[in-house]
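Hi, here's the filled form for the chain we discussed.

Project: internal
Contact: R.S.
Residues: 106
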Amino acid sequence: VAATIAEALEAVNNAPQRPDILLVDYRLGDGVSGLEAIAAIGALAGEVPAIIITGATDLRQIGGSQGAHHRLLHKPLKAALLREEIEMLLSGKAIAEEGDATSVPR
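And the returned structure, exactly as it came back:
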């Protein structure tokens, strides 16, 4: 768990292996987005599948992602959906049925 991009980069840099998946909030504070965190970690560790969690309802606010393996889930979030999305991203299978989750636009 990291509160800032710097903390996340330090954790990734000190980890014995790259992360399997990232769970990030879209709004991280100080005007920083989860997409920026994903990009920074990707630059250090290579592309990592990510789930972006947001309360935003306007996808235009979200912007694009840095890769095709990023999913967007909306708050409030059910634990069962999060678990399903994590399992599917880790297995590389197609992601949840339309309406349950959204691919982040590129």
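Let me know if anything looks off before we file it.
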